[in-house]
């Protein structure tokens, strides 16, 4: 695992003043909108479940499971917004204050959400931290939405919490959760097919965005220093650049993974080298592309890998 602790601390320091101002707002809003919180709130008299998620693909799952028995607001709902440097506004504060179910990524990625949660004194039972749900800890790679096990675990937890809030519709929540997971069957089926052919093959990445998916397939990532430098916004060392260039030009890797949302001069040059060397480039994104669902987003990446495997990788 990568050491993300220092990275997360720097992000939190950069936005402390802005988030602190919003925190004061949300404390007031929480008192007005929700009053005194209880450890295990219950939905009664037709009151709907209100869900706030930090990221849009978590919101997609939350909406699918709750169906007509609640509403869902995703604070980050555009691919142009960088979640780990987002500065929450008053509307975000209102959304969190109103919510009785909150979904955040954790692992330092959306620390602004956690501050809003704490400022509003939300009970722990209201909050789903997806990183913790998957057994990860501070310092681990935060891009957990690429992990194959993420969505089933999140859906199951949503069903559990919705059912506690609104027991009358527990069967509906389970049915809707199963229906959503069934829509992901093409993704899981393709994962199994690709895993059989990956066979611990070597790959290099511009940064560790899709690493959970790639390592789950069986690929071995061989440029940890380079990808970490790019992720942290630092300049890779000449030795690291030389290593990756050598891996590409001599076909020692099956493909190169490029996060198209964060491409500086160094990465651009590596992509150009890969094209000249006939080393395939797998293009991924950190955030949900416009017009895509979680299923079509993931399926698009896996289909790229399928095509690379069918063509035999670098040659």
Automatic annotation (TrEMBL):
Instruction: Give this protein's Gene Ontology molecular function annotations.
Output: metal ion binding
What are the recorded Gene Ontology BP terms?
metal ion transport
Query: Where would you find this protein in the cell?
Result: Cell envelope
Q: Which UniProt keywords apply?
A: Metal-binding, Signal, Transport
| Major localization class | other
This protein's source sits in the domain of life called: Bacteria
Its GO CC terms? Answer: cell envelope
User: What is this protein called in UniProt?
Assistant: Metal ABC transporter substrate-binding protein
Please report the organism this UniProt entry assigns to the protein. Levilactobacillus bambusae
């Amino acid at each position: 695992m990568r050491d993300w602790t220092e990275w997360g601390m720097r992000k939190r320091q950069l936005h402390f003043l802005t988030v602190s101002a919003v925190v004061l707002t949300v404390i007031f809003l929480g008192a007005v909108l929700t009053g005194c919180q209880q450890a295990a709130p219950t939905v009664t008299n037709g009151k709907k479940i209100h869900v706030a998620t930090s990221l849009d693909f978590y919101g997609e799952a939350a909406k699918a499971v709750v169906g007509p028995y609640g509403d869902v607001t995703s604070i980050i709902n555009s691919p142009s917004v960088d979640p780990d440097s987002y500065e929450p506004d008053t509307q975000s504060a209102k959304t969190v204050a109103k919510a009785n179910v909150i979904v955040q990524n954790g692992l330092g990625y959306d620390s602004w959400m956690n501050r809003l949660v704490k400022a509003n004194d939300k009970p722990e039972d209201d909050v789903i931290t997806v990183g913790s749900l998957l057994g990860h800890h501070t310092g681990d790679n935060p891009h957990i939405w690429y992990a194959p096990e993420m969505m089933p675990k999140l859906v199951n937890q949503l069903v559990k919490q919705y059912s506690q809030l609104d027991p009358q519709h527990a069967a509906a929540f389970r049915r809707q959760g199963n229906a959503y997971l069934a829509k992901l069957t093409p993704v899981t089926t393709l994962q199994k097919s690709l895993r059989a052919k990956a066979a611990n093959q070597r790959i290099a990445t511009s940064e560790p965005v899709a690493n959970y998916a790639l390592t789950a397939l069986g690929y071995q990532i061989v440029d940890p220093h380079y990808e970490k430098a790019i992720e942290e916004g630092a300049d890779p060392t000449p030795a690291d650049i030389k290593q990756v260039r050598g891996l590409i030009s001599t076909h020692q890797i099956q493909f190169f993974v490029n996060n198209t949302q964060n491409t500086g001069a160094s990465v651009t040059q590596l992509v150009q080298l890969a094209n000249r060397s006939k080393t395939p480039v797998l293009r991924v994104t950190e955030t949900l592309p416009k017009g895509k669902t979680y299923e079509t987003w993931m399926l698009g990446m896996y289909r790229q890998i399928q095509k690379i495997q069918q063509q035999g990788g670098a040659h």
